[in-house]
# Entry
Amino acid sequence: MGSFKFLLAALLLAGVLYGCNKDEVKNVPANAPTEQNTTQQVNENATELTEFNFLEFSLDVDYSATESYEIEFENKKSGIEAKLKDDRNNEKLQGDEAYTKLEPLFKQLTFDSTTPNDKVIEQVISVFGIADDFQSIEVEVEFADGTEKEFKQIK
# Structure
């Protein structure tokens, strides 16, 4: 009985938290992959690529203790969430605004779960225009095939 109460409480809390989410993208393109249709596409035709080859993308670049560049992107069954925070350009975007800015950049990313760490970092630096004076960069990706990878570089 105690586990039933816990499960019920967890479901209620999840519903409340989902309702409070401001990062959700409202104007999702019709051809945007979701966790469900991406998995189906991968299973039906392994060579067919979706719009991006990942479901989740997280980028954290530290320039100093007070300056960073951060991106959070999730594409799940419940919808797409996107956030961008750029301390150097005093920019904070979320939801549709963030997705609109990030979509063309994500389309330029061609790495996959087998790409070496240094090549992924080079591509991310190039695509996102990361300045050379960064202290550390960390990229976390969940690929469309379910593989999760973390790529790091510390100067």
In short: Residues 2-19 form the longest helix (18 residues). The radius of gyration is 17 Å.
